[in-house]
Prior knowledge:
The chain is an alpha/beta fold. It contains six helices and 13 strands. It has helices at residues 10-20, 26-44, 85-91, 138-149, 164-173, 201-206; strands spanning 4-6, 50-56, 61-67, 72-78, 96-97, 99-104, 111-117, 126-130, 133-134, 154-162, 178-184, 187-188, 194-195. The chain is globular and about 65 Å long.
Amino acid sequence: MSKIFVFDHPLIQHKVAMLRDKDTSTKDFRELVNEIGLLMGYEATRDLPLEEKYIETPIAKTTVKMLSGETVAIVPILRAGLGLVDGMLALIPNAKVGHIGLYRDPETHKPVEYYCKMPADIDKRRIFVVDPMLATGGSASAAIDFIKQRGGKDIVFMCLIAAPEGIEELQKNHPDVDIFIAAKDDHLNSDAYIVPGLGDAGDRLYGTK
């Protein structure tokens, strides 16, 4: 079964609290999501593989440890997932970025892929699927299905706010995918919004509420 990591770092918790406030402006909301993405990315990449390299400093020759090979891909679920990308790229500028877009079929209520573009070497990379919210878990599960169909194997999911229902659904569908969460909330309401949550992350990121 996958592991669940809920961050208790004071800076992350403080910034999530600011995100939740309904009076936080679009500009501030966007900046906070970016900052939290950076802070979470720092912790979520803790076990990236390293290899020894031989270099020469201005003083002496030495052996150092550096990231091993083709290491990271970041895959936001459109559109809200885009808000987390820049923070992670600040940490790992050489990461490649894929994109995946889904919509829910009005008749079957199942997620349908409308866009998916992955790096050609996606099978060689640690893949961070990012989306601010993990509510029902349907979109996250479907996105990971589509990535696996294209050869992705080493996948983790990273979000800001998660509901227990979404965690359970994602673990059921993808028990090999670890989940990194800034805050685990109480439940989903009848409209499938996370409570207490922070509202619609996409609308708040892009000022379309």
